[in-house]
Specification:
alpha+beta, Alpha-Beta Plaits, four-stranded antiparallel β-sheet, 33% helix, 23% strand
Length: 105
Amino acid sequence: MRICFLLKVRAERLEEYKARHQTVWPEMLQALRETGWHNYSLFLHRDGLLVGYLETEDFAKCLEGMKQREVNARWQAEMAPFFESAGGGDADDNMFPLEEVFHLD
């Protein structure tokens, strides 16, 4: 299944957010792979709109798997100040998949 979600990065933190993703911790990358995140990409617009895309068998299982990883708790704590959040919680709590309405095979 293909998953796409939106988040919002604070405008004043865009450059630092991009820099942090140049050096994602190896143990975080490993945890993502081990919990089923495949072909995972983030795209950032200059206004802070963040578009995430991944492919997975089960998105809820991916999120739950990451919640059980200590490295994810540390990553989320460090990244929380970068996001505008209407619903509270960390970024993982605000990843609501968009409805796919078209896909060109």
